[in-house]
Amino acid sequence: MKHFRYFRSRSCYFRLFIALIVAAIIVILFGICYTCSCTDISYDQALGYLKSLQTINAGGSVTYPKRILFWTNIFGEDITSKVHNFYDCPENKNRCVIDSNKLAILASDAIVFHSRDISNQGLADLLKISCLPDKSLRNPDQIYVYYTMESPSNSGYPSTPANFFNWTMTFVAESDIQTRYGPHFMKIDDAKALEFEIKDFAVDENRYLKKNSGIFWLVSNCNTDSKREKAVAELAKYIDVKIVGKCADNDVDKNLCPKSESCNDQYENYPFYIAMENSNCKDYITEKLYQRIHIPSIPIVSRRRIYENAGIPSSSFIALDDFSGPKELAEYLKILQTNITAYKHHMEWRKKWTIAPLGAAGLQSEMYGMCQLCDRLWESSKTHKSIDDINSHYEKLAACENGDAFLRKWIPE
What we know:
Blueprint (H helix, E strand, L loop, with lengths): L1 H38 L3 H15 L8 E5 L25 E4 L10 E5 H4 L5 H4 L15 E5 L19 E4 L6 E2 L6 E3 H6 L21 E4 L9 H8 L5 E4 L6 H4 L9 H5 L3 E3 L12 H4 L7 E4 L2 H6 L8 E2 L6 H13 L1 H6 L7 E3 L13 H11 L10 H9 L4 H8 L3
Parallel strand pairs: 1-2, 1-3, 3-4, 4-5, 5-6, 8-9, 8-10, 10-11, 11-12
Antiparallel strand pairs: 7-13
Helix pairs in contact: 6-11
């Protein structure tokens, strides 16, 4: 009987081993097939596609629109699901088109690569199979564009050859193309002088009276480069902080604000909310602030200079580095909670400031980054710079800081 159990046990392990081997082979074959679909485009195929476009366009205008090819997806989604309407651009109209068909590579003036998706092509990285275009398909007049809206540490550090990219398209103002998360603020008088439609942020002052005291924080990333979670944990020792989302400590608060809901009512119930970013980088301000500027609650951010450099009204937010430590900040917040006159000071900007229309020339936000790219393609000469190492270049461009370095000074020992 013991021998029977021994052999049966060995047989089970053997079958499990065989099953694992078969599964591994299937996964590898799938990965090879998948990655081939990334790069298996011949020059003749691409040339044929180019000729077909020329045939289609031959009967019309003298100049063709500039073609922008998205070689990668954006966070796994095909760009056609997020297709940009160039009719919304101030001046572009029919001057540019967007494509996601890789066969259009020879016909394209710019090839855009979304950083996170360069390293997100199935099993390509695991199998060391490149999902980048073959060298034979690269036209020397083309612009290869590195695109990301994330900080360097969250952009995947893609593995690409030296001098692969020509331009950067990121949130940093010094990028070749800047794509902001939100609009440009401007004084109402300046907007009127330009005959812009005025977005009114003034609210009934009764909305400054809150149901709850303390700070509201909706958060899903619990371990960040900026170490904002440490800053908030210290702040919570001196003032109430309501944490909801994935980082909450109970199931009710974890599910209080599903992704499908805006949770604006929750924000408005509190006098303050956390708008700190996962990284403290030059010009890195996301929807955490921009999507909630209409809510009469005061955002708490990490670094004042980042927001003031972006033209955001200085009294509209409170920054950690305005204070020597969490206790001093908490004491100031408590004063604002109980002194409506002092609280109103941080709301006065609503009477004097507005935002530029999204399509205003020179004031475009993220959705108009493509407008700027289109403009640059028409302005560009035939000679282009190349970026030696895109990852180190982007790190220097974004100039992100070490969150721990600030907190070691800010948090008392």
